[in-house]
Amino acid sequence: MKRIAVVEDEPLMREELADLLKRAGYEVEEISSFDDAAGVLLQLPLDLVILDLNLPGTNGFFICRELKQKSSVPVLVLTSRDQMRDELSALKLGADEYLTKPCRKERLLARVSNVLKRYEGRRNLLEGPGFLLDRQTYTLYVNGSSAILPKNQGKLLETLISHADEIVSKEELCVCLWGTSEFIDENALQVNLTRLKKTMAGLQMELRISPVRGLGYRLETEVKPYET
Questions:
Q1: What residues have CB less than 8 Å from 148, skipping those under 6 apart?
Q2: What pLDDT is attached to residue 145?
Q3: pTM for the full predicted model
Q4: What residues bear 4-aspartylphosphate in this entry (predicted)?
């Protein structure tokens, strides 16, 4: 059974949406607290997020961006904001559908079904600017090309992508490679990172791995000729 999260601050609307989806055969997770909605959603095994944009304390644009940077879950925006600039902003952030309220139930269910079909089999994919990473096979798809990464390179890239633009410590990278950080072999870690950098450069990815002195590494958008 497909699991859908409804992120909506209006209780009656949230309950109506949840009831509609349940009657259509979906499992529903209702999100009614929004301080860390993105963090909560990222911890849930979801097939789709239905997201309002006008939320107390935050907004749907921020949540959409966080979800799309750190996961491959599809996002359907359902909002009363009917301005073209809002729709374009949401789509640029990665939203898969944009519907305005009020919306006919049949139309909403049809869009939900279409998005789920498009994402069938893609739950293992991590998305980023211009690339996809299959977490099962560590196949990296970039600009129409693909490469199967060695296991260690795949683990490192998956960990860095999952943290978006956050800093990942050396300890965390060691855990992802060897399951422990008790005995950090910085030379071995550096060798694996250097190999991954060369692979990314060869595929002309828009991201680069940048060291943060004393803290670790993070992915950044490429702004100058790639250096390995």
A1: 137, 138, 139, 140
A2: 77
A3: 0.62
A4: 52
